[in-house]
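As a next step, we paired sequence with structure tokens, yielding the entry below.
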Amino acid sequence: MFNNALDHGLLKFDSSLKHHKDGMEKYIDERATRLAQAETGQIQLSLAKETDAGGGELLRIRVSDSGDGFDHHQVANKIAADTQLHGRGIALLYKVCSTVQFLGNGSELMVEFNLPLQ
């Protein structure tokens, strides 16, 4: 979640860079360049252990960034059919979290894990 906020929210990466034969190498080089040139940007992370309405425990994680956000509705529609070697982070969250919620313009994400983790 943090990595997505950094790469897509602050550094404005498009995952399509990784489509190319040497895409991962280009991505790593470009990421280093963009990090060195970054002048502003913010990522906030919060973790909370809470009790749900049924008395069970959960871990709530919120990550927000100062980027422009994205159309999370469009991404959610593509998840089931995606077989790429990148862009699977959101799909993975839907598989392992009890709750996945994008807030605002997509620059904030809240997930919940039921505890204990199994």
Q: What stands out?
A: The helical segments are 2-10, 23-37, 72-78, 89-96. Residues 23-37 form the longest helix (15 residues). The chain has one domain: 2-115. The mean pLDDT is 87.
